[in-house]
């Protein structure tokens, strides 16, 4: 299955020549946090966090509510800059990105936000196309690819619905479709299976696994340990856990 993204009739691009599911921590990383700390002002939330996301790897990020999962994801995609240490993406220092570099990062990293962040007055199709519109592309030229992407996430019948009319699972699938519309190398998803039933969480997991099988690097924050266990039967996933401000690799028991 090759979901097509707008302007990319050959299918979603893959990253370089690195093999699927590479967990190689020694080689080049698409995203790297090096001794990163973060503080919103009320004391350090994350401390000395180091992690490398190798091209084509699949990572879960878990930890208790409020541990800093969303914060860590934001550090990875440049929505926050570390208060100490260094964050790098695609060999750029996230701390000092100029406008063009930030635009590049936005294209290369697709984000599924916890709250989806749709514009409720636009249709599902228009919301999914929004990153194209924002980057000045003519979406009438992208219609076929948009339709194909909607079919991939199982929303072809919902193209003209508005976000408030969608179920939780439909919203998450629309958010996932939007995150890949610019054919990114990395997908970062924040609780993509929150508020959906088991069957739907398996369907969403399947889509993430398919993206990983195409060579995408995938980073998923989740509370759902059963989702992680199900994923580990399908992909070679590394599980990271935030505990006491630090990032640890979870044991094989997960
Ligand atoms: N913009 C902000 N300003 C101040 N504090 C913040 C901000 N965003 C998050 N926090 C605080 O940082 C802590 C970690 O929040 P974060 O959302 O990263 O945790 P989380 O592990 O993703 O939580 P959950 O699992 O509940 O989504 C929380 O105490 C939160 O209140």
Automatic annotation (TrEMBL):
Coiled coil: none annotated. Gene3D superfamilies: P-loop containing nucleotide triphosphate hydrolases. One of its GO terms (molecular function) is transmembrane transporter activity. Pfam families: ABC_tran (PF00005). GO terms for cellular component: plasma membrane. Residues 31-254 form the ABC transporter domain. SMART domains: AAA. InterPro entries: AAA+_ATPase, ABC_transporter-like_ATP-bd, ABC_transporter-like_CS, ABC_transpr_LolD-like, P-loop_NTPase. One of its GO terms (biological process) is cell division. Keywords: ATP-binding, Cell cycle, Cell division, Nucleotide-binding. PANTHER family: CELL DIVISION ATP-BINDING PROTEIN FTSE, IMPORT ATP-BINDING PROTEIN. This is Cell division ATP-binding protein FtsE. The lineage of its organism: Bacteria, Pseudomonadati, Pseudomonadota, Alphaproteobacteria, Rhodobacterales.
């Amino acid at each position: 299955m090759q979901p097509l993204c707008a302007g990319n009739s050959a299918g979603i691009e893959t990253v370089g020549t690195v093999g699927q599911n590479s967990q190689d921590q020694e080689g080049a990383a698409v995203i790297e946090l090096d001794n990163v700390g973060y503080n919103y002002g009320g004391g350090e939330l994350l401390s000395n966090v180091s992690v490398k996301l190798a091209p084509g790897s699949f990572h879960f990020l878990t930890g208790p509510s409020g541990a800093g999962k969303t914060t860590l994801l934001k550090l990875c995609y440049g929505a926050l800059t570390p208060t100490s240490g260094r964050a790098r993406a695609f060999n750029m220092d996230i701390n000092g990105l100029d406008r063009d570099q930030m635009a590049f990062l936005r294209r290369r990293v697709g984000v599924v936000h916890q709250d989806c962040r749709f514009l409720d007055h636009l249709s599902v199709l228009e919301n999914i196309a929004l990153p194209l519109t924002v980057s000045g592309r003519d979406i009438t030229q992208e219609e076929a690819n948009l339709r194909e992407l909607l079919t991939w996430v199982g929303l072809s019948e919902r193209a003209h619905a508005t976000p408030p009319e969608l179920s939780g699972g439909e919203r998450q699938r629309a958010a996932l479709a939007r995150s890949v519309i610019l054919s990114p190398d990395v997908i970062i998803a924040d609780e993509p299976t929150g508020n959906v039933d088991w069957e739907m969480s398996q369907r969403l997991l399947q889509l993430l696994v398919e993206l990983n099988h195409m060579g995408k690097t995938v980073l998923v924050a989740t509370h759902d340990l059963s989702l992680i266990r199900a994923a580990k039967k399908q992909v070679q996933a590394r599980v990271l856990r935030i505990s006491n401000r630090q990032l640890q690799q979870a044991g094989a028991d997960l």
